[in-house]
């Protein structure tokens, strides 16, 4: 199958508030007032956690039947550990982004604990967002005049 | 400064539609009808692109003044290259997630091309979402009973 290209266009709104436009959808991102924003939406690192947890939840639902899991319900809580000293440049040894991502899968299924554990291992390996973060893609950055 | 913990709780809504709850914000994620969803929102890989572009735009705005950039406007278009054969398990050599992420920075600034290029290099290095994807964090996955 041919490769697919996904696209998001992010525009500045006011202050540090931005809007990400994808197909017919708009997503407001901002920072809390304490971080210099106006708190109109979640911030980008929270959006990243949403993307990861959303992907894990969808993959868990999508593959359950074919993997022999009788899944009644699933909820995923994602936590990210962040060191502000890395982002703010106060500690060159601290990471700029998340140093740890923890996903807690809340599972209601008619299967053994072992079957569920094995299935969640399958889910994280088949989750495109998880793979993108765990196995870095190639990055390319271009700068062009504003249009 | 102490480490900060960010959190997103993702619940299944119906089919593969999910809701990510972060602080006071809710974010609907779904897939297009052609991919088995009901098209109520962007999908998780598009949310990941939004998080990356949103972070790059905010960082570009936040550090401009202190880096001597007279930034009038900024827009970031992020494209991700995805091979469905990797996700669907049809090609074990294909990546499950994005193989390439391209950010195009549209910049309106009262600076030389060289100054702007150097600044965007600074922005990508100081962007927490960019760093999280480029330099993989530690992952931990837990499975617990649904509550």
Fold and architecture overview:
The structure is a homodimer of 147-residue chains. Chain A is 30% helix and 37% strand. The first copy, chain A, has 147 residues and is an alpha+beta fold. Chain A has 2 domains: 7-41; 43-134, GMP Synthetase, Chain A, domain 3 (2-Layer Sandwich), CATH 3.30.300.20. In chain A, the strands form 2 sheets. Chain A has a 3-stranded antiparallel β-sheet with strand order 1-2-3, with no helix packed on it. In chain A, strands 4-5 form a two-stranded antiparallel sheet. In chain A, a hairpin with a 2-residue loop joins strand 1 and strand 2. Chain A is globular and about 55 Å long. The mean pLDDT of chain A is 96. Chains A and B meet through strand 1, strand 2, strand 3, helix 1 and strand 4 of A and strand 1, strand 2, strand 3, helix 1 and strand 4 of B. Strand 4 (71-82) of chain A pairs antiparallel with strand 1 of chain B.
Summarize, please:
Chain A has helices at 44-63, 84-87, 113-125, 128-134; strands at 4-14, 17-22, 25-29, 71-82, 98-109, 138-145.
């Amino acid at each position: 199958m041919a490769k697919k290209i996904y696209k998001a266009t992010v525009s500045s709104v006011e202050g540090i508030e931005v809007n990400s436009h994808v197909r017919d959808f708009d997503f407001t991102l901002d920072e809390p007032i304490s971080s210099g924003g106006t708190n109109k939406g979640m911030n980008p690192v929270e959006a990243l956690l949403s993307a990861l947890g959303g992907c894990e939840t969808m993959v868990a639902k999508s593959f359950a039947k074919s993997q022999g899991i009788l899944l009644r319900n699933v909820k995923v809580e994602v936590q990210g550990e962040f060191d502000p000293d890395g982002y703010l440049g106060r500690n060159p040894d601290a990471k700029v982004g998340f140093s740890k991502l923890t996903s807690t899968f809340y599972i209601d299924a008619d299967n053994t604990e072992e079957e569920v554990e094995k299935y969640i291992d399958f889910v994280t390996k088949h989750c495109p967002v998880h793979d993108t973060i765990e196995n870095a893609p190639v990055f390319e950055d271009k700068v062009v005049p504003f249009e």
